[in-house]
Design a protein that fits this description.
single chain; 343 residues; alpha/beta; eight-stranded parallel barrel; binds flavin mononucleotide
Length: 343
């Protein structure tokens, strides 16, 4: 089956086409990866590629409790232990660099959350001090956006230091890159706003800055055009995401990762496939059969599995043998200590 055939991702030789999807697990107290994480990730090293949980690029980038950071020596040292254990177990691991932007809260870091425009998210945010309303964000002036770009570059530098095989920019699920890209959250009239080309300027500047630390083929970008997390959206999602995919293709990054939540009747990977020349990774609800099918029809090059990996560290072997999978337990996704993580 194609799912179990090797794949060359740039210069990374993957033994199969199964990717472990990025999953926030909220088990890193003090923003430091634990020994549990070392075990959790290395147990999953048979994946063709592991995408790490979203790791914040600065204090202000944190969006939920006990998520890991990658912006100082202590955080990078803890990640290095994870990376080395994955490599020792024969695997490959990429750091997903995330900035929650407006989805953050001052309870995490004592600052106003950053956002491209003063558009407050729908709903409530859980902070260490309780369930709160979202806050009126800090909106950087044109000249101040460079400091946000630099946060991603610094995290990429630490990712390199920690030995990660690459980085993935988290542009999905209403995070900061998504907030700059989509019209519902970007009302700016400067060069970071306006039409779709203006709104993707931030993403492209981040990419350029990160390229100082990793070659393009070791960099990926994830999007979720069908997602509407906390009210994010776009007046022309097909145009906006198609334009981004073309620009990322021109920048010659290694992969585009599409969290393929439906956009109306469409699967975004279907209209993005032809726009991006590099590797296409899809995720969202794939099974052994549907993953095999999309690979056979050339709708994607690699398939990421999320929830199934939480309950099945040996997912690759189980899928290869066609064995029944353990059912995942959503109660252990974002909390629950060892259970559902390393047990
Ligand atoms: C517990 C959990 C945490 C997640 N955290 C992230 C994250 O940090 N970054 C991200 O891009 N996607 C995140 N996702 C989305 C997954 O990467 C994936 O797209 C989603 O689970 C769909 O794949 P699946 O149906 O195989 O689980 C998360 C999903 C789950 C279930």
């Amino acid at each position: 089956m194609k799912l179990f055939e090797p794949y060359l991702l740039g210069d990374l030789q993957l033994p199969n086409r199964i990717v472990m999807a990025p999953m926030t697990r909220n088990r890193s107290p003090g923003q430091i990866q634990s020994d549990w994480a070392v075990e959790h990730y290395s147990l999953r090293a048979t994946a063709g590629l592991i995408l790490s949980e979203s790791t914040q690029v600065s204090a202000r980038a944190q969006g939920s409790a006990d998520t890991p950071g990658l912006y100082n020596q202590a955080q990078a040292t803890a990640w290095k232990n994870v990376v080395e254990a994955v490599h020792d177990a024969g695997g490959r691991i990429v750091a997903q660099l995330g900035h929650a932007g407006r989805l953050s809260h001052s309870d995490y870091h004592g600052q106003k959350p950053a956002a491209p425009s003063p558009v407050i998210p729908e709903g409530f945010v859980r902070t260490p001090l309780g369930t709160k309303n979202y806050e009126d964000p800090w909106v950087p002036a044109t000249a101040e956006v460079a400091a946000l770009v630099e946060e991603f570059a610094l995290a990429a530098k630490w990712a390199r230091w920690a030995g990660f095989d690459g980085v993935e920019l988290h542009g999905a699920h209403g995070f900061l890159l998504d907030q700059f890209l989509q019209s519902a959250t970007n009302r700016r009239t400067d060069r970071y706003g306006g039409d779709a080309a203006g709104r993707r300027t931030f993403a492209l500047e981040v990419l350029q800055a990160v390229m100082a630390h990793f070659p393009g083929h070791r960099i990926g970008y994830t999007v979720s055009p069908g997602g509407n997390h906390k009210g994010i959206g776009d007046s022309d999602p097909i145009g906006t995401f198609t334009g981004l995919a073309r620009a990322l293709s021109q920048a010659r990054i290694g992969w585009l990762h599409v969290a393929d939540l439906p956009l109306g009747e469409l699967k975004p990977s279907e209209f993005l496939r032809g726009e991006f020349q590099g590797t296409l990774i899809v995720s969202e609800g794939y099974t052994r059969d549907s993953a095999q099918e999309i690979l056979e029809h050339n709708g994607a090059d690699l398939v990421a599995f999320g929830k199934a990996f939480t309950a099945n560290p040996d997912l690759v072997d189980l899928l290869r043998r066609g064995d029944r999978l353990e059912l995942h337990d959503p109660k252990t996704f974002y909390a629950g200590g060892k259970t559902g993580y390393i047990e």
